[in-house]
Write the structure tokens for this entry.
Amino acid sequence: MFVYVFLSLIFLTGGQQATPAAREPAQDSLGRSTPRGTVLGFLDAAHRRDFAAARQYLDTTLKGEPAEELARKLGVVLDSRLPANLDKLSEQAEGSLSDGLPLKKELVGAIATSEEPLEIQLDRVRDRDEMVWLFSAQTLKRIPAVYDEIGSSSVYDYIPDWMQRPLLLSIALWQWLAMALGLAAAVGISMGVRRMALPVLHRALGSFGADKDNHHLDLLIGPLRALVLLAVIHLTFSILRLPLLARQLWIFLSSNALIIVCAWFFLRCVRLSGMALGRRVERRGADSTALVRLLQRTANLLAVFIVAVIILQNAGFNVTAVLAGLGVGGIAIALAAQKTLENLFGGISLIFDKPVRVGDTCRFGTQEGIIEDIGLRSTRFRTAGRSVLTVPNGQLSVMNLENLGMRDKMAFQHTVAIHPETTKLQLTHVLDGIRAVLAEHPMVETSTRRVRLTKLAPTSIELEVLAYILTINAERFLAIQEELLLRILDVIEKSETSTALPSQVVLVNRDTVASQSRSAGKSSS
């Protein structure tokens, strides 16, 4: 209740923040210097049933009780039929200059009647030595007829007088009781939303709405209950035809509440979308959890920021300067966090382009290791020495990154050095034998195997052996490579030759040795 009264005071004190230079201080003691002041002042006097004061807001020649009766009827008409758009009333002494009306005229609103709509207008007239705004005489002419139209179908005749006594915010006692019953009904209806909404959500969300995921779908039940609660309360208030100021306050509160509830629903939808996206990523074997969390948090922060801006705007605060300041501050932050942003976008690039994945063996620069984690800022590698190497994503995005884990086959490439005294017949047997070894092995690719004599060196005869092993498993490749090398050695032995071993020939001159011996004898003596 205190919050309700506090917000009403905020609303009644002005919905738009104007600079002191743009707003004229009210000089009229009744606040009639501006259109907004006239309407609010009249409603305040009418709700206090001070019709002697209320008649001073009317541009009429009537005096005494007839003028007070006219003020009473005008108050009833405004409370019953006038649309709640008082926040659009001008607070300037000259009135609104952009409404298309002549100067010294202001349109408050239009009331639907059985005939043509009744326009509630204000005229700026001189009262003694001051220029004030009053309800126009043209408008007041039709007030009695519209009042009679309202009274002919009014339920007030069936309500005791003691229940029509106005209380807080000029709301009658019976209206407070009706609002309490409407609120209780709204709470009761909202409690049944889950039973009605879950089947619809199951059908709408498909496989994601399986029975085991009811605890996920329950995330949407809270916002849906709030929406139903607001809808029922709004319907109740519309039927009750609350006083104009109460309706205006309700519109202000309900519009902001609706924005908050919609934002709440959006945040829950983002959370469910993040869960669904995470599942899809897991099924594909990718590790994009960090990116999913980043997108989810970014959407949440953006939604909260937009809601805050809209609510402040509705409350009358000038958010233009705040947004401009945030724009300048964002540029400054972006410049200061350039490296961080570079790593962030580098991580996003790695996640989307997928040049590497967790578990792949990669070679970058002079380093080689297995990827353990791809984060938004850096990527962690486990090196052959079992240490953890962390590389910023900004560097990886511009680095030549060789993904050894994405090979479709592995190269078996060796240079076999044969003893230089090997004869041509022996060499032919070695070449044919190695080719037969490669041809017989089922894991050797047929179209790419090659065995060629490539070099006749002083100390060896070199053969190039090249083939691709049809496996991407490193351990399996090493086992096959070992098997092939042993068979090649067996072929060389059967060809009655051998592999070339590194050798060095030292030529010794006899005169040099004798000279070194004499020098050693002299030094010892």
User: Anything to note?
Assistant: Residues 1-26 have pLDDT under 50 and may be disordered.
